[in-house]
Amino acid sequence: MSIMTISSRELNQDVTRAKKAAKQGPVFITDRGKPSHVLLSIEEYQKLTKQRRNIVDALAMPGLEDIEFEPPRLDIRIKPADFS
C-alpha cells in the first residue's frame, strides 16, 4: 500500500491522477501545507466503516439483556411564567 500526498491545488488540476493513486492507497490532501482530507477507494472506505456499528446493532449485542438499567422517571410539569 502506497501513501501519496498532494496539495488541494494539485488535486484540482488532476483529479484523475488522485483517483488512480487512491486505488493503491490513501491520498492525503493538504491545504496550505497541512493535511486536511484523505481520499480512499470505496473498497478501503468500506473496510474501515465495516467495523463500526450503528446504535441499533450495538444495542442488539448478546449479553445486554443481563444488564439491569432502570433510568429514573422524570416528572415534567408546565409552570406558569412569573413576570413580576
Which tags fit this structure?
YefM-like_sf, Antitoxin, 84 residues, Antitoxin_Phd/YefM, 33% helix, alpha+beta, 3 strands
Describe the structure.
The model has no long low-confidence stretch (mean pLDDT 86). The longest helix is centred in the middle third of the chain and has 9 residues, at 42-50. The protein has a three-stranded mixed beta sheet with strand order 1-2-3. Strand 2 (27-31) and strand 3 (34-39) form a beta hairpin. It has a domain at 4-56: YefM-like fold. The chain has four helices and three strands, in the order E-H-H-E-E-H-H. It is elongated and about 65 Å long. It has 84 residues and is an alpha+beta fold. The protein has helices spanning 8-13, 15-22, 42-50, 55-59, and strands at residues 4-7, 27-31, 34-39. The N and C termini lie far apart (70 Å).
Task: Note the topology.
Blueprint (H helix, E strand, L loop, with lengths): L3 E4 H6 L1 H8 L4 E5 L2 E6 L2 H9 L4 H5 L25
Parallel strand pairs: 1-2
Antiparallel strand pairs: 2-3
